[in-house]
Amino acid sequence: MTTGKIEEILNRVETGPWNWLIFLLCSLWGVFGAMQAVATAFLSPLTDHWCSIPQLDHWTKEQRWNYSLPRATVAGIEQHSRCEMYARNYSVLEGVAWEDRHRYLPDEANLTIVPCTAWEYDNSTFQTTLISEWDLVCGRESLRSLIQSIFMVGYFFGAPLGGYCSDRFGRKRLMSGSLWCFIVVSVAGSFSPSYPLFLLCRLAMALTGTIVYQASYILAVEASSMRHRSIVGILFSVPFAVGFMLLPGLAYLIRTWRYLHLAISFPVILLIVNTIVIPESPRWLLQKGRWKEAAAELEKAARWNSSKTFDQAWLLATLTEMKKEAEEEGDKRDENQETEAPDSTSQESKQTMAGESSDQNNLQIRKQSSSPDHPSSSCWRRSKSAFVFLRTPMLRRISLILYFNWISVSMIYYGISLNSSNFSVDPFLYMFLGGLMEIPSYTLIIPLVAKFGRKICLISFLLFCGTAILVILIVPDERNSWWFLTLVMAGKFCITSAYQVIYLYSSELYPTSLRTRGIGISSMMGRLGAIISPFVNDILGMYHWAVPSTIFGLLSVSAGLLTCLLPETNHRALPDTVNDVEGWRSKGETWQTITAVRETEEEQGEDTALQPAFNVNRDADTSSPANTNTSAV
User: Fold this and answer.
1) What span, in angstroms and rounded, lies between the C-alpha atoms of 38 and 264?
2) Which run of H or of E encompasses 49?
């Protein structure tokens, strides 16, 4: 089946209400997906806490602090201890006025300090949080970080699972099933009675939510003609930024974590309408040989779009021709398998009749094990192909640098997005501005990368981001000043833009024979950065607010400098094989045309019959950072 014929059909269907309705309904998921991706900024914000002493509840907060809590340095600032208190007989002070405390319990010179057994929390901003619900403080801070980290683990596994299931079961069916699962587990998480159960719900939410987004994105792109595919790729990320900006508004109105979680989970049920209205991808139907269903959807699309170039008779003739070609290809594959299949039964009978010795039998077994059709040989080939990205010098350089960049960019993006507590900034304003910065990041990079190239843009965004984050360390103003916030938002803009460029750049650096797998592995490496990021913010941020900023700034600068070692791909033919990649010349920064015989399937460790269907316009891959790998398109 030729891709050109599918593109010709979509071009004749034209672009109109049918396409834009699919795009609108599919992209709506980004609003809810964004809110869930960064919800921990308001579900488990850093909350001031101190030891709970019920006998002193009749005193003011400051009086209790001065009398029962030692001083401690937290995040570089001296304040009351959050995890320790003086060992006193507080029961004798129950009901005693602050002025009369010395009459009942005289002060002692050297008081013993003991750890807290219960805590009180500052509820001036948030009435309840996940931290206050399950006491995620004082030695349990890592459990707070785990809430966001486990969500990213769901992304990590959801991306490859969604890609496989989407190709096997269809975009619409997978989207429908995953959406129902997401609604159930997200609403259940709002009423979770225990911390482990809530974590399990968050993991399932990320897993199913990633699959919904991936199936929606692929369906929207596949329904578009080649001419409009770049627009769809760009605009598909805008609802993510909208959800990013809506979340702080909801959190401002709803200060209880359970109600807030329910408020961003339950409305997803409105998207059930999508599963009824949205059609299955005609491209997928054609690939699966479901010709009648594909013809019905394409005819409906032509009617909705009032297409003037569409001819029903031509469509039926084209589909008949495609069906015939698919049947011929299937017959050829069956013939090849029958021809190449070893006649193991006849070999065994000959060995038995010849009465071969046991040594000869063992030798025959070893020979069969080395045969390409033997299961152990297949496992060996798979293990070899897993290292194909590291076997040749240029490909190894590209892969290692991209892996580092993906980890760094993802870690910095989520590190900045969820770091309002360390920056001492109003969390509602901080999150709103962070979402606002994403809209130009999604749209302005396209003309920039087209004019200046992928390499220069990625280097510039990474270096500017690192510089902005490091400069805030020496800004003399307070951390809640506009100058400070402006620098942080500049870093957010740059790292979001870098996230968009690296998707596109990676797709052009890997050869066609490895492109889908290369981007998939790179994207999964990026998820590792997102998994680590909460621990950098929460655990290291306790020692000083500047520690996470220093790490993120240095990582960004390092990633930018390493990118200098990669070739430019703008206005260059995409490499098709590993040989093309190795033919890159450092001076001219071009992909050298290779006329030599390309590597065999065994040498590449690849099955060339399974070439990736990466047909998206090169400038259209603007997948969002909270999203999964969309290279399967």
Assistant:
1) 11
2) strand 49-51
The span from the CA of 522 to the CA of 92, in Å, is: 63
The CATH number of domain 388-599 is 3.40.50.720: no
> Which of 167-171, 233-237, 364-368, 407-411 comes out lowest in average pLDDT?
364-368
519 vs 503: CA distance, rounded Å: 8
Cβ atoms of residues 225 and 245 within 8 Å: no
Instruction: Please report how many Cα atoms fall inside a 13 Å half-sphere around the Cα of residue 431, on the Cβ side.
Output: 25
- Cβ-based neighbour number of residue 226 at 10 Å: 15
- Give the span between the Cα atoms of 531 and 135, in whole angstroms: 22
3-state secondary structure 219-243: HHHHCCCCCCHHHHHHHCCHHHHHH
Residue 399: name the closest of 408, 409, 388 by CA: 388
The tokens describing 595, both together, are 């006329």
- Which conformational region is residue 22 in: left (phi greater than 0), alpha (psi within -120 to 50 degrees), or beta? alpha
Label residue 327 exposed, middle or buried (CB < 10 Å: 0-12, 13-18, 19+): exposed
- Asked whether the CA dihedral 122, 125, 129, 131 is positive or negative, the reply is negative
Residue ranges per structural domain of the chain: 1-47+122-309, 53-120, 388-599
**Nearest in space to 159 (alpha carbons), one of 531, 520, 519, 611:** 520
User: 1-47+122-309: which CATH topology?
Assistant: Growth Hormone; Chain: A; (1.20.1250)
Rounded Cα distance, 303 and 294, in Å: 14
pLDDT score at 330? 67
446-484 residue pLDDT tens: 788 888 888 999 999 999 999 999 998 887 666 667 888
Element (H, E) at 428: helix 427-452
Q: Alpha-carbon distance 476 to 483, whole Å?
A: 10
| DSSP for residue 514 | G
Task: Rounding to the nearest 10 degrees, give the CA dihedral for residues 379, 385, 387, 388.
Answer: 170
Please state the pTM of the whole predicted model.
Answer: 0.78
CA nearest neighbour of 211 among 154, 254, 261, 290? 154
Angle at 616 (CA atoms; ends 506, 497), nearest 5 degrees: 50
Asked whether the domain spanning 388-599 has the same topology as the one spanning 1-47+122-309, the reply is yes
Sort 253 into a burial class: Cβ within 10 Å, 0-12 / 13-18 / 19+.
exposed
Segments in 355-426 forming alpha helices (H): 358-369, 375-386, 393-417, 420-423
Give percent helix, percent strand, percent coil of the chain, each to the nearest 5: 70, 5, 30
Residue 8: Cβ-neighbour burial (10 angstroms; 0-12, 13-18, 19+): middle
| Residue appearing with tokens 């619900």 | 133
Provide the token pair at 284: 């997928």
Residue 369, amino acid: S
Taking Cα atoms as reference points, which of 247, 231, 207, 301 lies closest to residue 9? 301
Mean residue pLDDT of the chain comes to: 78
